Amino acid sequence: METPDQLKELVRQKYGEIARQEQDSCCTSSCCGTSDAKVEVYHIMSESYEQLEGYNPDADMGLGCGLPTQFARISKGDTVLDLGSGAGNDCFVARAETGETGRVIGIDFTPDMVNRARENAHKLGFSNVEFIFGDIEEMPLPDATANVVVSNCVLNLVPNKQRAFSEVFRVLKPGGHFSISDIVLKGELPEKLKTAAEFYAGCVSGAIQKEAYLGLVQDAGFEDLQIQKEKEIHVPDSFLLEYLTPEELHMLRSGSAGVFSITLFGRKPIF
Q: Could you report the per-residue pLDDT of 32-54, keeping only the tens digit for each?
């Protein structure tokens, strides 16, 4: 069993490799199919951002599992914080919502992703979008920084999710809110999948049960919880057969276990 630090390093390495890859059109959700099962698992959950204002293809690496910024109720002038900002995709969509009078901050603990996002922001000429290096479990930001927090398929990868949601609560202003897309489970996955490196870094085996996830959010102090969207994720047989026998795969498919993407809204109370 890996330690929390080992899991973080695994994620950092995997996403660093992705960030260094030359981006092409088949890295996005529109053509994520590939014969390489270990690559495919990173993209099977992503949704198309193409219809959203502010979308920039260079910043879309097809690594999300929802469209949290679409549901985030961002107003002009808001300060928006994106957790696990990658190459900047959600930040640039958020910037279109908050406008020139707002501020957008992306935080990521993979240096290659931060560098790539900064390059994209520079090309776009945005002066009110910044990307910082940091750990979601201990964010280098003051209390009450943001009006809105967004995140797309990232908190799965955080070993201490309780600590992460406590940090989200801390950095939100009173009355502020979040819209987070993430992966949750219903039923138990086979142990072989839970220990698969690609399955963890691909956001699946880092997931916890849906009710446990919602419980952590409530325990952190959030109110007005709403599931804005939910969908089941189909993990390809080609990937599962890397770790399971055909008989084990059949048992998994015929059982009640499932992998789901949810987009969750929550609000920090006004004290």
A: 333 354 455 556 667 888 899 99
3-state SS of the chain is CCCHHHHHHHHHHHHHHHHHCCCCHHHCHHHCCCCCHHHHCCCCCCCCCCCCCCCCHHHCCCCCCCCHHHHCCCCCCCEEEEECCCCCHHHHHHHHHHCCCCEEEEEECCHHHHHHHHHHHHHHCCCCEEEEECECCECCCCCCCEEEEEEECCHHHCCCHHHHHHHHHHHEEEEEEEEEEEEEEECCCCHHHHCCHHHHHCCCCCCEEHHHHHHHHHHCCCEEEEEEEEEEECCCHHHHCCCCCHHHHHHHHHCCCEEEEEEEEEECCCC
Q: What is the CATH number of domain 4-267?
A: 3.40.50.150
β-pairing, 223-233 vs 146-152, is unpaired
Angle between helices 89-98 and 111-124 (to 10 degrees): 40
Instruction: Enumerate the β-bridge partners of residue 177.
Output: 148, 267
Domains of the chain: which residue ranges?
4-267
Q: What is the largest CA-CA distance in the chain?
A: 57
- Is the model's pLDDT at 270 over the cut of 80? yes
- Specify the pairing of strand 258-267 against strand 223-233: antiparallel
Closest CA to 55 of 102, 96, 86: 96
CA distance 148 to 173: 8
pTM for the whole structure: 0.85
| Size of the chain in residues | 271
